[in-house]
Amino acid sequence: MVGNSVMETRFRMNFGEPLQVGEMLVVENETSPDRYLVRVMDIEHGADSDQKGWMETFAGQVLRGDANNVDYDLERIRPQLFCAGVSIPLGCIGSSFRKTKTIPNHFAKVRRTDITDYEFLKESLGDIQVGNLRSGDQVLDFPVGITGQAIPHHIGIFATTGMGKSNLMKNLALSCMSLRKYGFLILDPHGEYYDGGEAKKRGLKHAGKSDALVVFSSRKLDGPYNSLHLAASEIEIADLESLYEMTGAQKECMQSAQYTYGDNWLVELNDRPVGTIVKDLKEQYKDGTVSVIKRRLENLFRLDLITRDPKLSVTGNIIDALHDGKVVLADTSNMYEEEELLISTVLSRAIFQRNKELYGDKQRFDRLPPVLIALEEAQRVLTEAKGSIFAQIAREGRKFKTGLCAVSQQPKLIDTEIISQFNTLFVLGLADRKDREILKNSAKQDISQLENEIQMLMPGEALIASPFTPFAVPVKIHLYEDYLARELARAPPKAARTAPDRGFY
Ligand SMILES: Nc1ncnc2c1ncn2[C@@H]1O[C@H](COP(=O)(O)OP(=O)(O)O)[C@@H](O)[C@H]1O
Ligand SMILES: [Mg+2]
To answer: Which of 274, 268, 273 is nearest to 290 (CA)?
Structure first.
């Protein structure tokens, strides 16, 4: 170590010694058992010479030599050359792990880490395994996960397309299926989670955990699943508001219809002719207003999703499965965006409301597992802070054991107030500077100095920033197919059951 302050450690390396940005190293102190854990931020060239600009001067000699076909002797000067690493402190490892407040001795030895250096991390890493600790691009034999406590504090998964968001989601689901301690609802608009989507990929069904996975789908799947229906009676005005821009008159008209027709308002509005409705609502609303509403409802009812029979609704089953610590997959891949958003909204609201109701029943509430609702392309629904159920869950979910897991390739489009509620961030490779900036500002840990590193992340490489760990933890997310193979070898699935669990698959 050659310098230079508490907040920046510089060290010299032998010529040719490999080093990477993002690598974690240990600085040892001879006079105390404390070690310093640092992360490499940059690497610089250096040379021993009294002469200022000596490297440029030497390069000039080489070029002139080249022009005259004269060989130069790099071996001769090699002992003078070196690289210097520049690193920032992560913390001080002693009897406990703490913030760095002291400086190592002059010329302290800097070395690579081994897994025993990370023992202190074990207590802050959770049981929902996602990958292995990573130092630069070296993968260490040290599993990394997040804690279930993080669920109601919301989780964000952010990366440019192709950097590994879906793969990470599948890992989270597999870990949750193995644990049976957390409810995890995955809304899958791309149809990639059930069977992996592509021939060489694997999905949740391949885990063979039929007692931990419940599948709902609107398209035909190759395996057991339930079809996806919402009852007209469980759709609320607020749900429709999140789908359509509505004027004040339209909203009032619907409220009035709900008052007049009761629970069945949506069906009545759809079935009755405009004239009848206007009369029923005491001529308070214009034909035009009612027509607009009816046109939208027609669109909704045209779809297979909405049923008039409340008994066919899946909401109750989904909530039960989540409260039973299962993973629920809702495949909406053959739906129109409208329907898919309606499902997300209605289900999220129902889950949140149910948990809120149970809050009063302390004994039951205490036993309730935290529930995580994953939203793909989350930037679509996390845009405006006011009103939407997602904004409400983001703000209040923690009290009611309901967390959101936002998956997005454009975090910059998410409302800044909402994103600041997301306490655990999985930051994978992000090409766009604005996206990185948003995360930098909302992360609960200072990741401002990791800009270089985030740009260099390869698919599957991530940083987990969360208040539950002492620093943003670099991980290599497991490739799901590998993780699955290991899990299957460790705990082979039980023979398939003939009768579905609790009456539904
Ligand atoms: N953890 C990982 N390890 C190795 N390869 C990965 C990992 N995550 C993703 N990849 C590779 O990147 C590809 C895209 O990953 P995917 O999860 O579909 O990205 P996204 O959902 O962000 O678009 C995968 O098909 C896989 O080949
Ligand atoms: Mg994806």
So the answer is: 274
